């Protein structure tokens, strides 16, 4: 760490040519920096624009609807889980066989596990639905 800090001024210098007989290019002047924050009018008359950053708590993220297949490329569609109980789905997903000799069942399993769809209704169990699908 000390060696990096000690070499910082050296790293800020212009490049050194490595070919014999070559000369270093003349140093360039730095371009002027743009203003930090342009002047913007508030969208509503009562909203102050003071440049402060606000923070708050975001809701829990649920990636259960993530998937790489949609209806346009062979997926089941966003309503695939409509009417299903989440606890039941989470209990049955691990029971899907890892391999099968049937090409039809292989395609069906692939479509089920890779389709992007709204997750089923209900509370999530200890393992996430996306984790079970993966």
Overview of the molecule:
25% of the residues lie in helices and 0% in strands. The protein contains five helices and no strands. The radius of gyration is 29 Å and the shape is elongated. The two termini are 41 Å apart. The mean pLDDT is 78.
- DSSP strand content: under 5%
Low-confidence stretches: none
**Backbone CA Rg:** 29 Å
Mean pLDDT: 78
Number of helices: 5
- The general outline is elongated
Supply the helix-strand structural class. mainly alpha
Distance between the termini: 41 Å
The ordered string of helix (H) and strand (E) elements is: HHHHH
Which percent bin holds the helix content?
Answer: 10-25%
Number of strands: 0
Largest sheet: none
What is this structure's SSE topology?
Blueprint: H1 2-6, H2 8-11, H3 86-92, H4 103-114, H5 129-133
Q: How would you concisely characterize the structure shown here?
A:
With 134 residues, this protein is mainly alpha-helical. It is built from five helices and no strands.
List keywords for this structure.
134 residues; mainly alpha; 5 helices
